[in-house]
Each structure stands twice: as C-alpha cells, then as structure tokens.
Amino acid sequence: MGRGRRGFFDDLSQLPWPVALVVGLVGYAGIRYGVPAVFARQDGPFAQGLATASAGLAPVAWLFLAACALCALVAFVNARKRRRLLDSRTGFESLAAISWREFEQLVGEAFRRQGCAVAETGLGGPDGGVDLILRKDGRRTLVQCKQWRRRQVPVNVVREMYGLLAHYNADEVRIATVGGFTRDAARFAAGKPITLIDGAMLLALVHSVQAGARPAVPAQPPASMHRIAPAFAAAAPLTTAPPDCPRCGTAMVERTNRRTASLFWGCTAYPACRGTR
Predict the structure, then answer these.
(1) Which of 80, 133, 75 is nearest to 104 (CA)?
(2) Are residues 73 and 162 in the same domain?
(3) Residue 58: domain span
(4) CA dihedral defined by 218, 224, 229, 231, rounded to 10 degrees?
(5) In the predicted model, is pLDDT for residue 50 greater than 60?
(6) pLDDT of 202-226, one tens digit each?
C-alpha cells in the first residue's frame, strides 16, 4: 500500500540536517522579531498590539525552533543509517535480506553518492509506484525499487513506469530489483529512456560507491536464489563459462549489446570497471 502525504516537518526531516537547523533559526528570528517589525509600520490598534508583542511571540518562536531541531536530529540519524546500510552490503544475500523500505533507502543512497539529489516521494510502497526522484545536471529521473528475491519484473511494470514520464515531466526511468527482468520487459525497454537495473548491476553499483573503495566481489547469485537475468537479454545465452575481466580480474556476466543485439561478457563491477570480452 502507498504511504500517505507528508507535512512540512516530514519533508524537512528528509533534507540534509543543516538545512533543518537553518530553517529553524530563520523561522525563530522571523516570528520573534520580523513579525513585530512588520506590524510596527502599520496603523491600527491590532497592528500596534502585534508590534509590541515580541515577548509574547517568544514561546511560538522557540517551539518552531525546537521542532526544526528535532527534524534535524531525525535527518542526521536517518542519513547515518542509510550510510551504514549501504556500506554493509556484501553480496546478493545481503541485498535480499533487508526490508522493501530499506531497499529503497539503499538504492537512494547509492544514487546520492553518485552526485544525484534524491527525493523520496512517499508515493511508492511494497506494491510499487514512483519511489525516488533523482535530479542531476538538469535532468529528472523516476526510480522504482522492486525488492523481489525470486521473481522477475514483468513488462507491465515497465510500461506503467514509462507512462509516468510525461506526468512527472521526467527524462528517464530506472527500475532496480534484486532479481531480473523478463525478456518482454527487456524488449520493451530497448531504445527507450528506461534503465533496467538487475541484481548484478545493482550490486556492482553498490560496491562502486561504498566507503573505503571496497573491491567488487564476483556478482554470482547463490544457488538458492532465482537466477539473475541480464537487464537486456534478448538472444540465446552464451554457452561458455564466465571468464575473468581482463582489466580487474573480477568474474564477468553475460550481457547484450542494445544496438546490435550481439552477446558479450561484461565486468560485474560496471560502471566502476568497463572491461569486456
């Protein structure tokens, strides 16, 4: 089910914590000193009464500042939690073990470390929808997070997200999942501003932005999990065993060229490493 609409202080707690403190200080000064100064220039008993009510407005000003300070504390704790969540992921099992809400936070933090401004819309949820809106270099990207462990994302989900581009005036759609995508979904996404991020690509992204420049691990799912389908698989699979990357030595994964439909081996550490065979 989707989440309800948030209020002013809920939105404030989603911003960087220094922003909440600045808003609180500005609001305090405005309520306690700005309001009386404005009404001091007005005529009439009501305006003059407010002009001399600086002391009376002090409790309201302090209450607003305290609420903003609480939002700053919440924002600080949440940011620290997101950082720890991302830096502690080691493989597919760790991606699948978290809740759907933590999965959204993980994906958002990964894009945030790539320099994107990330807004959690509150319109998604475990059933789907727009979970994140990314802004970078004047472009707006819609993101849906599917924390499906053993299911592939079908084509109807990709169609629905593509249909939201015009509504949000966005430039691109990205769908991130622990599992893979059906062939119909991959075919529909080909040639469109849609990026399908399967488990291997997501794990590579997480490793590339983790603190301490942690080396990528072979992105092979355990036998107990559903096979991770390549994001743009549209041809017969390669029959040889996965080779090692010629650039970094990490195991490679089967991928498909979006323009020629030819198969090739790509490094699982992409985009940190762009080695191919």
Answers:
(1) 133
(2) no
(3) 8-81
(4) -60
(5) no
(6) 988 888 888 764 444 444 444 444 4
Measured CA angle at 81 (ends 225, 217), to 5 deg: 40
Please name the helix (run of DSSP H) or strand (run of DSSP E) that holds residue 122, with its range, or none.
none
What are the φ/ψ torsions at residue 275 (nearest 5 degrees)?
-70, 140
Phi, psi of 264 (to 5 degrees): -155, 165
Specify the length of the chain in residues: 277
Percentage above 70 pLDDT, the chain:
72
pLDDT: which is higher, 38 or 259: 38
What ranges in 97-181 are assigned the alpha helix state H?
100-113, 155-168
Q: Which of 50, 81, 112 is the last residue of a domain?
A: 81
CA dist., res. 125 & res. 1, Å (int): 6
The pLDDT value given to residue 210? 84
Q: Specify the DSSP element, H or E, that contains 27.
A: helix 17-29
Q: What is the CATH number of the domain that holds 165?
A: 3.40.1350.10
Q: Does the pLDDT value for residue 127 go beyond 60?
A: no
- Report the DSSP pairing between strands 263-267 and 252-256: antiparallel
C-beta contacts of 256-264 below 8 A and 24+ residues apart: 256/230, 256/232, 258/190, 258/191, 258/232, 261/234, 261/235, 262/235, 263/235, 263/236, 263/237, 263/238
Q: What is the C-alpha to C-alpha distance for residues 60 and 233, in angstroms, rounded to an integer? A: 60
Count H helices and E strands in the chain, helices first. Answer: 10, 7
Q: What is the pTM of this model?
A: 0.60
234 pLDDT more than 90: no
Within-domain flag for 274: no
